[in-house]
Write a structure and sequence with these properties.
Length: 150
């Protein structure tokens, strides 16, 4: 989740943001994006498992947020991202990825050739995510090993 006091640094230092889940954050990122920079690529973070402790827009508000973000002048809405509930059950993993892929397909508009990114899957489940349509995966643990608990 992006904190409001971090949007200025993010808007000026990065080309992509994968965790936009509120209108306020999207508006601040757009307003604070330098005028000489290309539009900031953003993904909407979706809370596919409706976990109260996790960030992300709920599916029933997704279309409204997507329309709002798509209308901001300094942002370029590219797709969706989710971090599903951690589980070792491949059927549950697949179901979460399918829900996100279906939401992505429902929002696809023929006139938008930049609606192309579906970020889902991490080191433990990326193969299932790719089979369900992921275009981006997060492989930190596979590359760097487990985090230290310090």
């Amino acid at each position: 989740m992006i904190q409001s006091n971090k949007t200025r640094d993010i808007a000026s230092a990065f080309d992509w943001v994968h965790t936009v889940d509120r209108e306020r954050i999207a508006r601040r990122l757009s307003e604070q994006r330098p005028a000489d920079a290309p539009r900031l690529n953003v993904l909407l973070q979706v809370n596919v498992d409706r976990e109260p402790q996790k960030a992300g827009v709920m599916e029933e508000r997704l279309a409204e947020l997507a329309e709002y973000v798509a209308g901001l002048p300094r942002l370029r809405l590219r797709g969706l991202m989710a971090i599903p509930r951690e589980t070792s059950d491949p059927h549950e993993q697949r179901a979460a990825f399918q829900r996100l892929a279906q939401a992505f397909a429902r929002l696809t508009m023929p006139e938008r050739d930049d609606w192309d990114s579906l970020s889902m899957g991490m080191s433990a489940d990326f193969e299932i995510a790719v089979s369900e349509g992921a275009t981006l995966v997060r492989l930190g643990t596979a590359i760097f090993g487990p985090r230290n608990a310090s």
